[in-house]
Amino acid sequence: MMRLPLFAFRAPTSLEEAARILDGEGPQAMPLAGGTDLLPNMKRRQQVPKTLLSLRGIAQLNGTQIDKSGSGSRFGACVTLSDIAADARLRNGLSALAQAASFVATPHIRNMATLGGNLCLDTRCNYYDQNYEWRKAIDFCLKKDGDTCWVAPGSAKCMAVSSTDTAPALMALGARVRLVSRNGEREISLSDLYRSDGQFYLTRQPNEILAEVLLDSLRGWKSTYWKLRRRGSFDFPVLSVAAAVRSGIGGVVEEARIVIGSAASRPLLASDAAETLIGRVLDGDAIAEAATLAARIAKPLDNTDFDMSWRKKVAAEFVSYALRELRGEDVSNERRSFTHTTLA
After folding, report:
1. Distances (CA, A) of 63 to 79, 277, 301
2. CA angle, corner 283, sides to 280 and 287, nearest 5?
3. Nearest residue to 79 via CA among 211, 196, 209, 208
4. Strands 8-10 and 51-54, bridge-based pairing
5. Could you tell me whether strands 64-65 and 73-76 are parallel, antiparallel, or unpaired per DSSP bridges?
6. Side-by-side strand order, sheet with 239-247
7. Long-range contacts for 35-42 (Cβ within 8 Å, ≥24 apart)?
8. Cβ(74)–Cβ(87) under 8 Å?
9. What is this structure's pTM?
10. Given CA atoms 155, 158, 160, 165 in this order, what sign does their dihedral have?
């Protein structure tokens, strides 16, 4: 039986109090929201904070404001994934977020897991996501306690993979996040929250709390999220695609974003693929070109499930399916058949 290490527990009731405690405790403290990732990691000794700072009792982090007047939407970091997945207001422009939340793990876990926790999800790797004794037997790895990245032994950088579902969806929606510390607060693009480094994957500082996700008005936008995993539930993504478009008269695309997830240590903005759609309708040629360009940036390694070459091919297929869905085509059969294929 794997047991949690000893730790101190703090439960502030305001964001200001939480920021003071986190600043005072230093880097050995970690925020705790749903705990669905952090607590299992602690049992495996992947993360060993001396103090856990519970955020669940902070009312400021549990609110949701959905765009109705054109002023944009706001999501508190402790809103659960179940609440997001079940919110009927998250359609069309916000569909990708609802879909991504609904695909995370199981209903029991989604009832506990939070939006902020999923955005800050630890990176994953076949050599890292093992118990302590297994990792010790291979002399650990670069991400924790070792000196070698076993995926790419010649690399000076950890190659663990970003496995968050909601980050690609929210990046496709142009999201920003508000980070709060004792010294003040700052607002950054969600894409700037991530580094291309599996070990130091967040730009959030140890004394900062991810408090809120912010979205501008998404009127006129449509979005969707596609996820590859072996089983139809529970599993982390081993590839994901989020796409969002805003079309004008005649279906001509005026703005677009495409994001590839779980193919690197951070979600990847497929800027060239999105740019090629501007000023065009989503016909077969435009979709094929965008899918080809998006797949070029997907360079998965052999550190998660499935063959890495096949996962790269799936990236192009998923971009194609996502864009076909956004032009109004029924691709439900493709979703189902892909799940059945991966189960075989």
Report:
1. 7, 35, 38
2. 85
3. 211
4. parallel
5. antiparallel
6. 221-228, 239-247, 253-261, 268-269
7. 35/112, 35/117, 36/105, 36/109, 36/112, 36/113, 36/117, 37/113, 37/117, 37/121, 37/122, 38/117, 38/122, 39/4, 41/122, 42/4, 42/5, 42/7
8. no
9. 0.96
10. negative
| Distance (Å, whole) CA 130 – CA 144 | 11
114, amino acid identity: T
Sequence-ordered list of residues with C-beta below 8 angstroms from that of 297, at least 6 positions apart, any chain: 260, 263, 268, 270
Tens digits of residue pLDDT in 107-129:
999 999 999 999 999 999 999 99
84 close to 115: Cβ distance less than 8 angstroms: yes
Give 222-241 pLDDT, tens digit per residue.
999 999 999 888 899 999 99
Q: Burial of 291 by CB count in 10 Å (0-12 exposed, 13-18 middle, 19+ buried)?
A: buried
Name the residue ranges covered by the structural domains of the chain: 59-120+161-343
* Rounded alpha-carbon distances, angstroms, from residue 12 to 21, 32, 58, 115: 8, 11, 7, 19
In CATH, 59-120+161-343 is 3.90.320.10? no
CA distance 72 to 141: 43
Q: pLDDT: is 233 or 136 the higher one?
A: 136
pLDDT, tens digit, for every residue of 84-105? 999 999 988 999 999 999 999 9
